Amino acid sequence: MSMYGANPEQLTSLGTTLTNQIDAVNGIVEHVNGVLENTLWQGPAKERFAELWHGEFRQTFESVKESLGAAGKDCTSRAEELRRVMGVAG
What is the pLDDT of residues 37-60, one digit of tens each? Predict the structure, then answer.
């Protein structure tokens, strides 16, 4: 027999974990920005990387953060709804 549903506490925990990972992504971006700014590096390779970093890579990190936030919020909302349906206080 298949199980459908979720454990509300675990789902809330997952939502919190996903949302907290936004800070980790921000940390990566800030760290690389700092290192890139403070590294003595000149030439076409640096220019290509900087262009990618501030363009395509940055957009990718922003998309990851948006996805983590949306998934975290969805998990938390679903956990709250499960608690409501089950008649359990959260």
Answer: 999 999 999 999 999 999 999 999
